[in-house]
Each structure stands twice: as C-alpha cells, then as structure tokens.
C-alpha cells in the first residue's frame, strides 16, 4: 500500500515527509476504522468469490448422485420374494419419496424385520410391493462374519458383495444439475 516500506506493511521513511495530498491517500494516515475496513475487505471478497464460484458450479455442472434404478435382484432374497424386478425404479418407501439409491439403503437399514410399503415404477406404471428386509450374514475370504441388512436389490451386476445381499450403488453415478432431476 502507499507508504509501506516492505511487504509486511511497515511504514517507510517517506511517511514522515509526505505532502498533504499524499497523506490523504496513505494507508498509515487513515483512521483506525478505515484501516480495519481495508484489511477486512480482502478476506470478505475471497469469501464472496467462493460462494459465487460454488453456486455457478452446482448450477451448471450439478451434484453427483446415484439414481434409484434396480439393476440386479438376488434370487431367494426379500426383494425377489416381494416381486421386485431388474429394471424397476424405486419411487417411494413407506410414503417417503426416493430420489437416490442411498435413500433405499438407509430405509432398509432402519427397518430390519419391519414390512415396508415400497412403490416401484415398472413399465411406466407404479406398483406397490410389501418388502420385509432381513438380516443376512456374510463371510469374507478371510473368515470375518459381517451381519448386513438387505433386501438384495442392487444397482450393479452380481459381485461377491452384492450376492451376499447388500444393496450397492452404481459404479457410474449420474450428474444432477442444480434443482433439476433426471427421470422426473
């Protein structure tokens, strides 16, 4: 700033020999409130710039999400017994709208053994199903036992984990711009 000796804003030798016109624009001759405002303006501008950039990013690029499409239904699972089919799309669970596959996973984890009214969209028609998630236990290749809640409907083709009965998110999530949603 005008009148500084170096980058640390120490006053230079010329501060004492400035004319009235130079003192009027010199940082070191401003009142305390004016100096505080100048110092706070830098971080404040950075904060506002960050908000603008992030808002533009979310409005144009979107936010990653996993659509609630069913890719695979494991045989002899709670989902298969209830009539869930590959290609179905979750619409709601117990009256709560489903927007992403993670909503399904959370609802299933919270309702072990409790029947859930699930609405899926199949061939452009809404179908209501009653699914009762149940505990399944998996054993990994190291012999570790892992209890899991599931109805065995997943987004991807069968893998060792999905065949054990867990619902898996897609390996290729979609992008959702701002307030718009695919498939709505």
Explain what this protein looks like in three dimensions.
The protein has 184 residues and is an alpha+beta fold. Helices cover 27% and strands 23% of the residues. It has four helices and ten strands, in the order ααββαββαββββββ. The strands form four sheets. A four-stranded antiparallel β-sheet has the order 4-3-5-6. A two-stranded antiparallel sheet has the order 1-10. The chain has a two-stranded antiparallel sheet with strand order 2-9. A hairpin with a 5-residue loop joins β7 and β8. The C terminus is likely disordered.
**What does the oligomeric state look like here?**
single chain
Count of helical regions = 4
Largest sheet: 4 strands, antiparallel
Runs in which pLDDT lies below 50 for 5 or more consecutive residues are 154-184
Shape annotation? elongated
Protein traits:
single chain, 184 residues, alpha+beta, 4-stranded antiparallel sheet, two-stranded antiparallel ribbon, disordered C terminus
